[in-house]
Amino acid sequence: MPKAKKIVWKGVDDMPEMAVSLSSMRVNKTASWRNLKPVIDYDKCKPCGICWKFCPEPAILLKEDGSPVIDYDYCKGCGICAEECPRNAITMHREER
Amino acid sequence: MRKLMMGNHALSYGAKLSRVQVIAAYPITPQTQVVELLSEMCANGELDAKFVKVESEHSALAASIGASAAGTRAFTATSSQGLALMHEMIHWAVGARTPVVLGNINRAMAPPWSIWTEQNDSLSQRDTGIMQVYCESNQEVQDTVIQSYKVAEKVLLPCMLVLDAFYLSHTYEPVDIPEQKLVDKYLPKFNPPYKLDPDDVHAFGGLTDAKWYYELRYKIESAIERARGEWRKADDEFGEIFGRKYGLVEDYKCEDADIMLVTSGTITGTARVTVDMLRDEGKKIGILKIRVFRPFPTDEVRDILGGAKKVACIDRNISFGQSGVFFEEIKSALYNSSHRPQIWGYIAGLGGRDVTPDTIREIVKRTEESDKPQELIWIGLKK
Ligand code: SF4
Ligand code: SF4
Question: Where is the signal peptide (chain A) (predicted)?
Answer without folding.
Answer: none
